[in-house]
Amino acid sequence: MMRQQIGPPQLPIYPFRCDACGAKFKVTRSVEAETDALSCPACGGNARLLVEQAAPPPSSALGRYYAAHVHNNDWSSGGVVELAEIQSELHQRIPQWMEQLQMLGVRGVDQFSALIGPSIDIYSKYADVIDQEGRSIRLGGDATSTEPHERGYLACVWEILDRVALERALRSPETLAPDARLTMLFLLWTQPSTVEDAPVAEPGAGDSIPLDVVRCFAEPIGIDLPAMEGTIVTTEGGMVRLLPVAARAAQLLARLPETTLDRVHTAMLLHAQGRAAELADFLGAQRSPEFTRLATALLALYPGDGEEHRLLDAVLGAPAAEAR
Question: Domain limits at 63?
Answer without folding.
Answer: 13-175
